[in-house]
Specification:
18 strands, 2 domains, 14 helices, Purple Acid Phosphatase, chain A, domain 2, single chain, six-stranded mixed β-sheet, alpha/beta
C-alpha cells in the first residue's frame, strides 16, 4: 500500500486566476503523474471553500478562502483525501465549514480532521486500500478554528484524546497514520514539545507521524523503527511577498509511504509558486544536504534545545508586543527598534509568567479571552 502526503494547499492570488480559467495543468500538472501511481493521496486543504455570502470570523491573521475551482483542481490532479485540521478551515464560520464539506462530497474527495462539531471533527477515518485498512487521525494546534460540541471546526491537538484514538484505530486497522498541523511558522525545526508528543504517538501505536503548518520543510527521524516527519512545507500556496522574504516558503516535499512490515518512504522535493507559477519537481537530492543537517539536529536533543532557545530569543520582541498596552503599527515598529521603552513592570511579567506556565491558571486565561472579547 503506497500513500502520498502533501503539505499546505491554499489556491489564492495568481493560482486563483489560473484555476478560474481551468488551467489546472499549469499549476498541478507537474505532480499529476506521481498521484496516479500511488494507491492513495492526501493533501492539507488550508482554507474555506465559499460561495460568496459567508462572513469571515474575527481572528488574528488572514481569513483564507477559495471557490469551487480549488476543489475541482484537486480532483483533476488525482488527490483522494484532504486533511481539514488546520488554522484556516473555520475562517468563514459555520457556513464556510458547511460549504467546504459540501464541495468535497460533491467531488468525491474524502475528508478527515474537520466537521460540524468536535464529535465529527475528531472521528478516525478508515480507508480500505487493496486488502489493507488504513486509519488516519488528523489534528491541529489550538488557534481560532477549533471545533467544540456546539461549533464546527477542526480537531484539536490533545495528546490524551489522540492516545485513545490511536489505541482504538490499532484494533480496527492494519496501519495508523497521524497527521498533525502545528509548529512555529518559518522555523525549520520542531520544538522539544512537538518531538515529545509525536514520539508519544509512536509509543501509543502510530506507524507514521507527519506534520505540516510551518510553511517550510523540516527534517525527519526514525523513532523506534517508525518515521516522524516534522514539516513537509507548502504544497501550493501562492504568496510572492512571503516567497521573497522567506526563501524556504517556495520549497517543500511530498512523502510517499510504503506500508509493509517496515514503513519505507520516498521524498519528492519541489519548488512551488515562486516567480514562476506551478509546482516544479526537483532532483531527488535537491536539498538532501539541508535535510540531513536538520535530521542531525533533530536527533541530538542538546542541539535541538539550543536551536530552540536561539529561535525563541529572536522572537522575544514580537511576543512581548502582544502584552504591551499600545498595539498600533507605529508602537510595534518603535518597540522593535528599541525606540519605545517597555511599559511592562517586573511584577507584571512574573504574573503573566505564572498564568501562562501553570496549566490551571492558563485555563482561566483562555476562558477569559474566549468569553470576554
Amino acid at each position: 500500500m503506497n500513500v502520498l502526503i502533501a503539505g499546505d494547499y491554499c489556491p489564492q492570488n495568481r493560482v486563483t486566476e489560473e484555476f478560474n480559467k481551468q488551467n489546472y495543468e499549469r499549476i498541478l500538472g507537474g505532480v499529476k503523474n506521481i498521484l496516479q501511481n500511488v494507491d492513495y493521496s492526501i493533501v492539507n486543504f488550508e482554507c474555506a471553500v465559499t460561495k460568496g455570502n459567508e462572513r469571515p470570523i474575527t481572528k488574528l491573521g488572514p481569513n483564507l478562502q477559495c471557490g469551487e475551482a480549488g476543489v475541482e483542481a484537486l480532483k483533476w490532479a488525482g488527490f483522494d483525501c484532504v486533511t481539514l485540521a488546520n488554522n484556516h478551515f473555520r475562517d468563514y464560520g459555520d457556513e464556510g465549514v458547511k460549504s467546504t464539506l459540501f464541495y468535497f462530497e460533491k467531488y468525491g474527495i474524502d475528508t478527515v480532521g474537520g466537521g460540524i462539531s468536535i464529535k465529527d471533527a475528531s472521528k478516525i477515518f478508515y480507508k480500505q486500500v487493496g486488502d489493507k485498512i488504513l486509519a488516519i487521525i488528523n489534528c491541529c494546534e489550538h488557534e481560532f478554528t477549533i471545533a467544540t460540541h456546539d461549533r464546527s471546526g477542526s480537531n484539536p491537538l490533545n495528546p490524551i484524546q489522540q492516545f485513545y484514538a490511536i489505541q482504538s484505530a490499532k484494533k480496527d486497522a492494519d496501519y495508523v497514520l497521524v497527521i498533525v498541523h502545528g509548529g512555529h511558522e518559518h522555523y525549520q525545526l520542531p520544538s522539544i514539545r512537538m518531538q515529545e508528543i509525536y514520539r508519544f504517538f509512536i509509543d501509543a501505536g502510530a506507524d507514521v507521524v507527519v506534520n505540516h503548518h510551518q510553511h517550510c520543510y523540516s527534517g525527519y527521524e526514525i523513532y523506534k523503527g517508525k518515521p516522524i516527519f516534522y514539516g513537509i512545507g507548502n504544497f501550493c500556496f501562492d504568496n510572492l511577498g512571503f516567497a521573497k522574504h522567506y526563501s524556504s516558503w517556495k520549497y517543500g516535499y511530498m512523502v510517499e509511504l510504503e506500508f509493509s512490515a517496515i514503513v519505507k518512504f520516498k521524498l519528492y522535493p519541489f519548488e512551488q509558486c515562486g516567480k514562476k507559477l506551478g509546482i516544479k519537481l526537483l532532483e531527488e537530492n535537491a536539498f538532501a544536504d539541508n535535510v540531513k543537517k536538520l535530521n542531525n539536529i533533530i536527533g541530538n536533543r542538546k542541539q535541538l534545545l539550543n536551536a530552540q532557545e536561539k529561535y525563541y530569543a529572536s522572537e522575544i520582541k514580537e511576543v512581548l508586543s502582544c502584552f504591551q498596552p499600545f498595539r498600533s503599527r507605529l508602537a510595534f515598529g518603535l518597540r522593535r527598534f528599541g525606540l519605545m521603552p517597555s511599559l511592562m513592570s517586573k511584577s507584571w511579567q512574573y504574573a503573566l509568567y505564572n498564568y501562562i506556565l501553570c496549566e490551571s491558571h492558563r485555563d482561566k486565561v483562555e476562558y477569559f479571552l474566549e468569553n470576554y472579547r
